[in-house]
Input
Amino acid sequence: MSDCVKCGVKVEEGVTRCPGCGASLIKTGTFMELIGWVVVIISSIPIIIGLKTLDQNYYLPMVIGGAVLVIGAVLIVLGRGKSRAAADTVKAPAPATRE
Ligand SMILES: [Zn+2]
Output
Protein backbone atom coordinates (compact mmCIF):
# COMPACT_ATOMS: atom_id res chain seq x y z
CA MET A 1 0.00 0.00 0.00
CA SER A 2 1.12 3.54 -0.71
CA ASP A 3 -0.38 7.01 -0.59
CA CYS A 4 -1.41 9.26 -3.48
CA VAL A 5 1.01 12.21 -3.61
CA LYS A 6 -1.80 14.64 -4.52
CA CYS A 7 -4.51 13.81 -1.96
CA GLY A 8 -2.92 11.30 0.44
CA VAL A 9 -5.56 8.59 -0.11
CA LYS A 10 -4.31 5.01 0.24
CA VAL A 11 -3.97 3.28 -3.14
CA GLU A 12 -3.52 -0.43 -3.85
CA GLU A 13 -0.48 -1.62 -5.80
CA GLY A 14 -1.09 -1.75 -9.54
CA VAL A 15 -3.98 0.73 -9.50
CA THR A 16 -3.68 3.15 -12.42
CA ARG A 17 -5.99 5.89 -11.12
CA CYS A 18 -6.30 7.32 -7.62
CA PRO A 19 -9.69 6.41 -6.06
CA GLY A 20 -9.63 9.68 -4.08
CA CYS A 21 -8.80 12.43 -6.56
CA GLY A 22 -8.75 10.58 -9.88
CA ALA A 23 -5.13 11.48 -10.62
CA SER A 24 -3.35 9.14 -13.02
CA LEU A 25 -0.81 7.05 -11.13
CA ILE A 26 0.98 5.87 -14.28
CA LYS A 27 4.22 7.67 -15.01
CA THR A 28 4.17 9.23 -18.49
CA GLY A 29 7.32 7.40 -19.59
CA THR A 30 5.95 3.98 -18.66
CA PHE A 31 3.24 4.26 -21.31
CA MET A 32 5.75 5.46 -23.90
CA GLU A 33 8.04 2.52 -23.11
CA LEU A 34 5.10 0.11 -23.48
CA ILE A 35 4.31 1.54 -26.93
CA GLY A 36 7.99 1.10 -27.81
CA TRP A 37 7.85 -2.62 -26.94
CA VAL A 38 4.67 -3.05 -29.02
CA VAL A 39 6.40 -1.35 -31.98
CA VAL A 40 9.44 -3.66 -31.56
CA ILE A 41 7.16 -6.73 -31.57
CA ILE A 42 5.32 -5.45 -34.68
CA SER A 43 8.68 -4.84 -36.43
CA SER A 44 9.41 -8.57 -36.25
CA ILE A 45 6.70 -9.21 -38.89
CA PRO A 46 8.42 -7.35 -41.79
CA ILE A 47 11.80 -8.65 -40.55
CA ILE A 48 10.60 -12.28 -40.77
CA ILE A 49 9.18 -11.57 -44.26
CA GLY A 50 12.44 -9.79 -45.12
CA LEU A 51 14.52 -12.84 -44.13
CA LYS A 52 12.54 -14.94 -46.60
CA THR A 53 12.85 -12.43 -49.45
CA LEU A 54 16.57 -11.64 -48.92
CA ASP A 55 17.73 -14.43 -51.24
CA GLN A 56 15.49 -12.97 -53.96
CA ASN A 57 17.39 -9.65 -53.68
CA TYR A 58 14.24 -8.07 -52.28
CA TYR A 59 15.34 -5.94 -49.32
CA LEU A 60 12.34 -3.64 -48.80
CA PRO A 61 10.60 -5.64 -45.99
CA MET A 62 13.97 -5.90 -44.18
CA VAL A 63 14.53 -2.12 -44.47
CA ILE A 64 10.99 -1.38 -43.21
CA GLY A 65 11.38 -3.87 -40.34
CA GLY A 66 14.73 -2.36 -39.40
CA ALA A 67 13.33 1.18 -39.43
CA VAL A 68 10.33 0.19 -37.27
CA LEU A 69 12.66 -1.65 -34.87
CA VAL A 70 14.79 1.50 -34.48
CA ILE A 71 11.66 3.62 -33.81
CA GLY A 72 10.56 1.14 -31.11
CA ALA A 73 14.01 1.13 -29.52
CA VAL A 74 14.06 4.96 -29.46
CA LEU A 75 10.61 5.03 -27.78
CA ILE A 76 11.79 2.56 -25.12
CA VAL A 77 14.92 4.60 -24.38
CA LEU A 78 12.98 7.91 -24.30
CA GLY A 79 10.25 6.36 -22.13
CA ARG A 80 12.82 5.07 -19.63
CA GLY A 81 14.44 8.50 -19.46
CA LYS A 82 11.05 10.14 -18.87
CA SER A 83 10.15 7.65 -16.12
CA ARG A 84 13.38 8.44 -14.33
CA ALA A 85 12.77 12.20 -14.62
CA ALA A 86 9.07 12.10 -13.67
CA ALA A 87 8.03 12.83 -10.10
CA ASP A 88 6.72 9.93 -8.06
CA THR A 89 2.95 9.48 -8.26
CA VAL A 90 2.74 7.60 -4.96
CA LYS A 91 4.68 7.88 -1.72
CA ALA A 92 5.28 5.52 1.19
CA PRO A 93 2.51 5.80 3.77
CA ALA A 94 3.25 8.12 6.66
CA PRO A 95 3.92 6.32 9.94
CA ALA A 96 0.85 6.19 12.19
CA THR A 97 0.97 8.86 14.88
CA ARG A 98 -0.02 7.91 18.44
CA GLU A 99 -2.41 10.23 20.17
ZN1 LIG B 1 -5.29 11.15 -5.08
Notes: Residues 2-91 form one domain. The chain has a mean pLDDT of 89. The chain has one domain: 2-91.
